[in-house]
Amino acid sequence: MTELWQFALVGLAGGGAYALIALGIVAVYRGSGILNFSQGAIGMIGSYAFWDLYEGGRGSLPVLPALAIGVAVGTALGMLFYLVIVRFLHNSSEMAKVVATLGFMLLLQSVAVKIYGTQPHLLKPLFGSGKITIFGGIVTHDTLAILLITLALGIGLSLLFRRTRLGMNATALRENPQAAAAIGVSPHPTGIITWGMGGAMAAFAGILLIPVTGLTPGALTLLVLPAMAAGLVGRFVGIWPTIAVGLALGVLQSVMREFEINSGIISSVPFALIIIAVVLGGSALPGRGETLTRRLPRVGTGRLRPATVAIWAGVAVAVSVLLSPTWASALINTAVFGLLALSVIVVTGYAGQISVASAALAGFGAFVAARSSSDLGLPFLVCVLLGTLSAIVLGLLIGGPAVRVRGVNLAIVTLGLSLAVENLILLQPTMTGGSDGVVISNATLFGIDLNPAAYPDRFAVLCLIVLALGAVAVLNLRRGESGRRYLAVRANERGAASVGVSVAGAKLGAFAISAGLAGLAGAVSAFRFNIADFSSYTVFHSISTLAFTVVGGVGYVAGAVFAAVTAQGGVVANFVSNDLNLSSIDAWLAIGSGLLVLDVMVRTPDGIILQFAAMRSHLARVLPVKRRPSAAGAHAKAAPEAGTEAGPEPERTTALPRVSGVTPGTPVLTASGIRVTYGSTVAVDDVSLELKAGEVVGVVGPNGAGKTTLLDALTGFSPSAKGTVEFRGRDIGGLPAHLRARLGMGRTFQNLELFDDLSVRENILTALDSRSRLSYARDLVLPRRHDLNEATGAAVSILDLEKDLDTVVADLPQGRRRMAAIARLVAQEPAAVLLDEPAAGLNGSERRTAGELFRALADELGAAVLLVEHNIDVVAATCDRVIVLDHGRTIASGPPADVLREPAVREAYLGR
Ligand SMILES: Nc1ncnc2c1ncn2[C@@H]1O[C@H](COP(=O)(O)OP(=O)(O)OP(=O)(O)O)[C@@H](O)[C@H]1O
After folding, report:
1. What is the DSSP string of 474-526?
2. Are 827 and 754 in contact (CB under 8 A)?
3. I need a surface site. Which of 355, 642, 651, 895 has the fewest CB within 10 A?
4. Average of pLDDT values for 637-649?
């Protein structure tokens, strides 16, 4: 027991350091809205500065001045990064922010390796060998210093954010940047100060931890992971939960050491547990108002030009056959990195899931393939297949959290889980054969010996073929329906669920395919030497794969090719170090790559590949090349200028297509006893209603009456709703939103929830697509292409959307966007249509047209329509019946003219 207590007390040093770094992360997040993945690396640089100056290291200063300078270096680095990079990222996508801080981490890491090397340095306790005794256990002065500093900074930060103007400005900027800007709050003073504070805390933590863990570039940089896990629990805002979890983590790890638990388990399991707890507390769909509106990275069309493919393939094969073995090795590196980059494109570029696990997946694929060869003696192809399949299974496990966690939190979760894979499998001597490694048999495919030692060119050609097939598969995916699903989920999860896309299914599909590509890369490369080695599949490898793919262009296969060609050990690096004889330049290349990541994130976050495209079109403009008139140009001439008044609405000649199998007048949607509460607020209280095919029922009521919440409850967007909901005679109470949509419940949202970065056509096609799970695999080979069908064509014509079909939705005016939302809804052929304030923001004549359209949804489409609307004129002119809600309860219902005359209704609207 005493020993256990002692180990717990020893763990307070590490725990305090986690808490300190995590506090810095919280300060930076509260001050600038950015999660700083380079926090550990900043601390590491501050620690090296301290070690350089400290008399116990390689300097001559006593501890306190050296500590002060080390902390000052951390502070300066934090401020510098804000000034040079972060202040330009305020309107960037979440991914650009994550990659920028990861890029800074890589930069600092490579600078430290260049200057200090990787050998560990140890120090004696900084504050002497003094100690105090607590209940028989010993606490050293160093541990005490860490704890006191953590406590003091915890109190200081609480007061700063609660009591000072700077803290209040920071809260205002985080919660509502537009409103804060409107009252003149500038983000920069809070940004600079909190980044400086973050840097100081990181350096403090790093320096105080040197006597405990030693000083190496990698270990201190990776302290960011447990610190992130601690911060995650307090959602990066809570100061005391962060400190408590940081300390608990350190203590738990120390106690586990007492039980002689495997070091891999100690370093990964505790915070994997925290991550699991956070995942369980997440939600399957984001709540109302939680959908991101920031611009997402651009994505290519997925079109493939056979001539380009043929030229590249020819060049690659010629190079690998004609040039030296070092070139073959560089080509193999390029192909393997290219496959990893393709895996990032699928999961991050297309599906929008910031995942940092590609190297762990590749390592696992390599591990299974190598063991299948060495232990089971299976043939090359079977081993590669097994490696790929097992990576897919692991990918589904790592992707599991993505169903409930999103954005930057997912980056932390995947980082944590991939560190667990690295520690528990790839670095375990019992698994990987220790110093003997895993001896594998030679690669033979269809009778051709591919042994890379004897035939490096053959193996290189094989790798290039696999890369080319992977690239074609990813392009196919983009053009198929599963690619559209990914993009819909990336753009708007609530919108995707409303048209029947399984958000969880799409995310898992993307994770599986991405893991398959990474696993394939690993499985093939396991055979490049006679002894397979897994030590290179580190978290840093995952981070640089993500960063360089984003630099290349995360939405473009060409971006992956760029990343592969310029990767470490790839063809460009080989050319520079071998052909130009500049091998000493390697360390500088690593530093240059880190700088490139930062530059691209600030100036062209869509990727370098788009810069090339822009240069090509500039050249095409300046060179006297005869160009064909473009279809777009012809279209522009034919179409009236955007924004011009089109005169009176033309008479409609086509009707909306009738939904099959719905008989007018039969009940479609029946709800009883619906009740929704948010904490102590009862938003909807015992509401019952029945909707029949062909009728329009209005729902009116003052602001906050519970109208939207009722719609959410009926359509499955409010999972905690009580009561029964029947749709066409079937109890659908337990079904999630996307399954209700598939049964024929269509809805619109107050803020539309369109897929803003897709065209109107792609928005409609997403609703029209089949929901087959098979398409995730089929699209890789045979993407199914289709266009609007007859019914949606008619809807588009009625809604006058033809000229907008290929316009990106974000570029349309609000009225057109509303029409696009209705076209997307009609594509679902819904039997029940639930419209949430669809006429808001329309002018008088637009409102009349919209009212006619809502009627047409009932009269022509044959659907049962529930119309939530504030405009009483629209309600009176359109609805057969009206339900009035007030404080969540039905206070009246019946024909509009009667209901709107009732005194209770007038009182609810106008007050007594
Ligand atoms: N996520 C939430 N958390 C807590 N309270 C909520 C949440 N969503 C809605 N509410 C509360 O539930 C009640 C009903 O809100 P709801 O948005 O459904 O009303 P509404 O009639 O649609 O209002 P409006 O006409 O302004 O859109 C309000 O008191 C609102 O503050």
Report:
1. HHHHHHSHHHHHHHHHHH-HHHHHHTT--HHHHHHHHHHHHHHHHHHHHHHHG
2. no
3. 651
4. 37
pLDDT at 660: 67
Mean pLDDT within 873-894: 91
pLDDT tens digits, residue range 523-552? 999 998 888 888 889 998 999 999 999 999
- Binding-site residues, ligand 1, Cβ < 6 A: 287, 678, 681, 683, 701, 703-709
Buried b (16+ CB within 10 A) or exposed e, 240-266: ebbbbbbbbbbbbbbbbeeeeeeebbb
The domain over range 306-615 is classified in CATH as 3.90.1480: no
Determine the distance separating the centroid of ligand 1 and the alpha carbon of 655, expressed in angstroms.
36
722-727 vs 531-532, strand pairing mode: unpaired
Supply the residue whose CA is at minimum distance from atom 25 of ligand 1: 703
Find all residues with CB under 8 Å of 648, minimum gap 6, and list them.
Answer: none
Tell the residue nearest (CA) to atom 7 of ligand 1: 678
> With the CA atoms of 14, 16, 21 and 24 taken in that order, what torsion angle do they form, in degrees rounded to the nearest 10?
180
Spell out the domain ranges in the chain: 2-261, 306-615, 667-910
The reported pLDDT for the residue numbered 641 is: 34
**Between the ranges 84-93, 297-306, 330-339, 408-417, where is the mean pLDDT highest?**
330-339
Top pLDDT among 625 and 588 is at 588
Q: What is the CATH architecture assignment of 2-261?
A: Orthogonal Bundle (1.10)
Q: What is the ipTM of this complex?
A: 0.96
Intrachain domains 2-261 and 306-615 with the same fold? yes
Tokens of 495: 């919108």
CATH architecture of residue range(s) 667-910: 3-Layer(aba) Sandwich (3.40)
Which pTM does this prediction carry?
0.88
Helix (H) or strand (E) holding 883: strand 881-886
The closest residue, in CA terms, to atom 13 on ligand 1 is 683
For residue 708, give the ligand 1 atom closest to its CA: 22
The secondary element (H helix, E strand) that includes residue 732 is: none
Hey, what are 277's tokens? Answer: 């707890």
Centre of ligand 1 from the C-alpha of residue 682, in Å: 9
Residue 629 pLDDT: 45
